[in-house]
Amino acid sequence: MILHFAPQTCARVTLTALEESGAPFETRLIAFLAGEHHKPDFLAINPAGKVPALETVDGVIVQNVAILTYLAEKFPDAGLLPQRDDIAGRADVLAQLLRCSSDLHPLVTRFVMAPMISTEPGQAPQIRAAAREALCFQLGSVERLLARQEWLLPEGWSIIDAYVAWIWFRITGAGFDASAFPAIAAHYDEASARPSAQAVLAHEERAQQDLAARGLQFRPPPVAEA
Ligand SMILES: N[C@@H](CCC(=O)N[C@@H](CS)C(=O)NCC(=O)O)C(=O)O
To answer: Where in the chain is the domain with CATH 3.40.30.10?
Structure first.
């Protein structure tokens, strides 16, 4: 398998799943600042110009949720997702994944990248403030759940924990006030201590060094608070 990725992006979740699977894989670094995600070579892999994209023996798979469910089914012993035997139970797992990709991820983008989203000059602080408020609301139920149980699903660790850890990493790295979410903060520490998470960080660090050597290290622009 070949994973097209960039450090610190949501491709981290797929990279974690690959590490957890124990299956052999390679990575291809996509340098956003060089516009590589919009170059023909990568668009031939993912016409949407986004990471992650995973080349597999079954073809190219894009979208985190699709890749994660593919890997969970392909490598059932890795325990990426619980194998529930009832329809409603499987729907619930899918809902938790989609919550990360469809509800939370767009808010992360608005919070972290507000200046790149606003079409009007000077709108970034308002976009960021609205994203913060929505994140606080959405993360409230995650906080209450993690105050009661160690991992997001009752069966134990799953790749959904790595997804929430990535979300937490992105927003706290961009100045999100963590003080009202101690259970999520503790969950982040625990998820980050897993060997797969450590391997992913080392992998990303090598990628960051590559990008730095090419003068292509991406730093989101700072935003004034609304
Ligand atoms: N829904 C997609 C989102 C993928 C996505 O937005 N990836 C970002 C990095 S976190 C990206 O490649 N952005 C580049 C762009 O949109 O131009 C998924 O879950 O895989």
So the answer is: 2-79+196-213
